[in-house]
Write a structure and sequence with these properties.
heterodimer, A: mainly alpha, 8 helices, 81% helix, globular, B: mainly alpha
């Protein structure tokens, strides 16, 4: 099978497994709504500029997304599925990309539900710059997913996995989150991406490319040793 | 032999640092800042030492992945721990300076924030090591994490730099430098002292790591009997 097909097979397997139980997706969505509600006590909607609300959105995405990413490799531990996957005649890179793509789609699904909820709760007309916002969401989410998936593999069979993953992920994600926050803050208030903010877009693309390449290169060491 | 070299290096470090303390105490006060500026003689070399440690940790991690030789793993953890201590010294001295000059202990400036994020990243490295029991897996995962963390550092720095800056511009190796030549000599000499100190600390930590591995293998042998 070609590389792309292997990636798609792994992705389809992960999505199928998740959609049968929907445990990670439901938990992540519910958590996103919980954070959105909690944030409402911190910020009085009228005083806080809408740009800041757009920034907060990425905290919601990152926190809730971790619940999906936590499951990515942990799902394979019962019944020794991970050993079987590693022993299967597919490269670590294909396995990694397939899993990352599956998590990416799940996190994206959570975000696309959380976005309108955010708009309703905080009275933000977020869809004024719809397609640029989607671009930023996709780029930011891929950054979150690629780092999250590598660390999900790193922490899969260690003690305190649920604690370790966020502790390792968020500092590493800082540049991507910062870029996505800056752009989203502008876009939800209707400000298009201009010459001032295009740097952040470049940063997001650079982050995604660099860490995808690094992860694909290093994943074999994590899976096989 | 190795012990003797360590004693000599340690004594040399103490001598240099003691002499520098004497010289620094005799320097005149800086026109605008008064005596507190003298903290720069420790603040800046501590940061440089931490950077040298981070580069060494990266090299050792790559070497470990290439050779699977545990001496590189021991070197990586030893140098990371020492680097973290020097980065902490850098953050603390900076904070003391900021309290006097800016009137605040902390501000979310680019250098402060990126130094803190680096500290958190490498603290995550040590936490990850603590959480993994199996030595080969621990060494491999830690090496992968160390490489990813090192890649992240420059992106973190530049992303926050675009975000905001308040830190005084560097006065070394830059066009807006105004640091007198004889002060620079003291600063470099102090750096040499701190570097020697770091080397001695790393070597001691390295020996602990080697003893630990010996104890582990003896214990395993005893269990096997």
């Amino acid at each position: 099978m070609s590389f792309a097909r292997l990636v798609l097979v792994v992705m389809a397997k992960d999505l199928r497994a998740e959609l049968r139980t929907k445990e990670a997706l439901n938990a992540s969505l519910a958590f996103a709504v919980v954070i959105l509600v909690l944030l409402s006590f911190v910020i009085e909607s009228d005083d806080v500029p809408q740009k800041a609300l757009g920034n907060l959105l990425w905290l919601v995405f990152a926190f809730a997304g971790t619940l999906v990413l936590n499951r990515s490799f942990a799902r394979e531990v019962p019944n020794d599925c991970l050993d079987a996957l590693v022993a299967a005649p597919i490269s670590g890179a294909a396995l990694f990309l397939g899993k990352a793509l599956a998590s990416f789609l799940l996190v994206l699904a959570m975000e696309l539900v959380a976005l309108p909820v955010f708009g309703i709760f905080y009275n933000v007309r977020w869809a004024q710059q719809f397609w640029p916002l989607m671009l930023v969401t996709v780029l930011g989410t891929w950054g979150v997913t690629v780092i999250g998936t590598v660390f999900s593999a790193l922490t899969v069979n260690i003690r305190l996995r649920e604690v370790m993953l966020p502790m390792l992920t968020y500092p590493m994600l800082l540049p991507a989150l910062l870029g996505a926050m800056e752009l989203t803050g502008d876009l939800v208030t209707g400000t298009p991406i201009g010459p001032d903010t295009v740097t952040w877009l470049k940063l997001l693309v650079g982050f995604d490319v660099l860490f995808t390449a690094a992860s694909v290169t290093l994943i074999e060491f994590i899976l096989v040793g | 032999m190795r012990d003797k070299i360590l004693y000599v290096l340690g004594a040399l470090a103490i001598l240099i640092l003691a002499r520098d303390l004497y010289v620094i105490a005799g320097l005149p006060q800086e026109a605008a800042q008064g005596a507190i500026f003298k903290i720069i003689f420790f603040h800046v070399p501590a940061a440089w030492t931490a950077i040298v440690a981070a580069i060494t940790a990266l090299t050792m991690s790559v070497q470990f992945l290439r050779t699977k030789d545990f001496k590189y793993d021991a070197a990586a953890v030893a140098v990371t721990e020492v680097g973290l201590a020097f980065l902490a010294a850098n953050l603390v001295t900076g904070s003391i300076w900021a309290r006097v000059i800016w009137g605040i202990w902390w501000t979310w400036d680019v250098r402060l924030t990126s130094a803190l994020v680096c500290w958190l990243l490498y603290a995550g490295y040590l936490m990850l090591r603590h959480a993994i029991e199996e030595p080969t897996q621990r060494a491999t995962f830690a090496a992968v994490f160390s490489i990813l963390a090192f890649l992240d550092v420059p992106i973190v720095y530049f992303s926050i730099r675009w975000f905001r800056t308040q830190h005084p511009a560097p006065v070394f190796l830059s066009s807006n430098g105004s640091f007198p030549a004889d002060w620079t000599r003291v600063l470099l000499s102090n750096w040499l002292g701190l570097l020697l100190l770091a080397i001695v600390m790393t070597a001691i930590r390295l020996r602990q790591e080697e003893s630990q591995r010996e104890i582990d293998s003896l214990r395993r042998a005893a269990h096997a009997m």
